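Module 6 notes. Inverse folding takes a fixed backbone as the condition and produces residue identities as the prediction. Think of it as a translation problem where the source language is geometry and the target language is the twenty amino acids. Below is one complete input and output pair. Work through it position by position during the lab.
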C-alpha cells in the first residue's frame, strides 16, 4: 500500500487526534451495547504478501486465513471484476461468523469517477450479495484528487446505492476534512443515508485522521510504516475504542495494512490481544507463525 508511505517516521506526530465533536453526538443516539461486534483482519490473504504467516503445506490460503481471523478487507475486488460464482466460492471456503468487506471496483471509483455508474454498482452489489450473511460492509475508496467540487457525484452515488447494502466511504482529499463547510455537508449526507465515514490512520497523511463518525460503526483502515512504532500506534486505538464502546459504539471494523505487507498478521494479533484485555473479551488470537518469526512474535502471546 503506497498511500501515505514515508521513508522514515522521524519528526512525524503519530499521536491519535481527539474525537471530532460530532462523534459523541452520533454515539449518544444509540444506547450502549453490552457486546461490541468486532471484525479485525488484514487486507489480503495471499501467501506472497503475508510471508511466513502460513505453515508449510497449506494449499488453500483463504481456508487457513479464515481459521485465524474473523474478517478480511477484500481489496481484490478493487482490481478485478468477480462474478457471483467467485463470491459463492469464498463463502463456502470460510467458517460461520467470518465476514468479507469488499472494496468497490476502481472502474467505478477511479476510472469513471462515479459518473454514470448506477448499473455497475448494482451489478457489483448483486455479486457481493452471494456472500450472504458473511457480507460485512461494502466500501468505496475515492481517489485523493476527488474533491468537494465533485460532491454532486458522490451525493448521487450514495442516493442510488442499492438499498439494504451496507456502505462505507473513504475520502482521501484533505479538503473534505479541512473545510468545515464541506466536512459538515458530506457528513450530513452520510448520516442521512447511514453511510459509515472511514477513518484512515497512516504515517504520511496525518491530515486525514478526522475521528468523525457518521454512524455508530467505526471502520478503521490502519497502515503501518514497517517501523516499531506500528505497534505503539495501536495502543491509543485500543483506549479510544473502549471509550467509544462505553459511549454507544455498536460495531468495530479494523483492518491492518503495512506499506510492505510483511508483519500485518503480527500487528493484527497484537491488536486483538490488547482488545481482549481491555474489553474483557475472547477474540481468537492468530496462532503463532512458523519458527522464522517465532522469536519476533513471542512477546505478543
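Target side of the pair, the amino acids:
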Amino acid at each position: 500500500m503506497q498511500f501515505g508511505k514515508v521513508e522514515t517516521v522521524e519528526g512525524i506526530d503519530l499521536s491519535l487526534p481527539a474525537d471530532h465533536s460530532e462523534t459523541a453526538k452520533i454515539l449518544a443516539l444509540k444506547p450502549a451495547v453490552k457486546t461490541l461486534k468486532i471484525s479485525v483482519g488484514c487486507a489480503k490473504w495471499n501467501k506472497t504478501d503475508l510471508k511466513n504467516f502460513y505453515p508449510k503445506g497449506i494449499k488453500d490460503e483463504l481456508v487457513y486465513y479464515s481459521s485465524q481471523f474473523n474478517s478480511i478487507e477484500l481489496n481484490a475486488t478493487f482490481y478485478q471484476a468477480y462474478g457471483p460464482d467467485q463470491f459463492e466460492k469464498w463463502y463456502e471456503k470460510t467458517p460461520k461468523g467470518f465476514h468479507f468487506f469488499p472494496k468497490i471496483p476502481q472502474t467505478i471509483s477511479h476510472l469513471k469517477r462515479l459518473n454514470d455508474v448506477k448499473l455497475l454498482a448494482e451489478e457489483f452489489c448483486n455479486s457481493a450479495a452471494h456472500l450472504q450473511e458473511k457480507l460485512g460492509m461494502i466500501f468505496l475508496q475515492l481517489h485523493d484528487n476527488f474533491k468537494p467540487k465533485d460532491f454532486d457525484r458522490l451525493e448521487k452515488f450514495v442516493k442510488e446505492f442499492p438499498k439494504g447494502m451496507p456502505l462505507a466511504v473513504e475520502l482521501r482529499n484533505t479538503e473534505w476534512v479541512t473545510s468545515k463547510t464541506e466536512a459538515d455537508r458530506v457528513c450530513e449526507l452520510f448520516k442521512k443515508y447511514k453511510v459509515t465515514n472511514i477513518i484512515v490512520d497512516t504515517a504520511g497523511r496525518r491530515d486525514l485522521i478526522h475521528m468523525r463518525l457518521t454512524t455508530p460503526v467505526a471502520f478503521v483502515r490502519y497502515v503501518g510504516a514497517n517501523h516499531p512504532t506500528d505497534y505503539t500506534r495501536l495502543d491509543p486505538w485500543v483506549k479510544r475504542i473502549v471509550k467509544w464502546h462505553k459511549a454507544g459504539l455498536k460495531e468495530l471494523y479494523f483492518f491492518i495494512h503495512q506499506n510492505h505487507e510483511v508483519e500485518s498478521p503480527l500487528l493484527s494479533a497484537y491488536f486483538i490481544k490488547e482488545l481482549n484485555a481491555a474489553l474483557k473479551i475472547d477474540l481468537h488470537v492468530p496462532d503463532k507463525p512458523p519458527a522464522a518469526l517465532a522469536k519476533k512474535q513471542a512477546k505478543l502471546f
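Reference fact for the lab report: The two ends are 27 Å apart (CA to CA).
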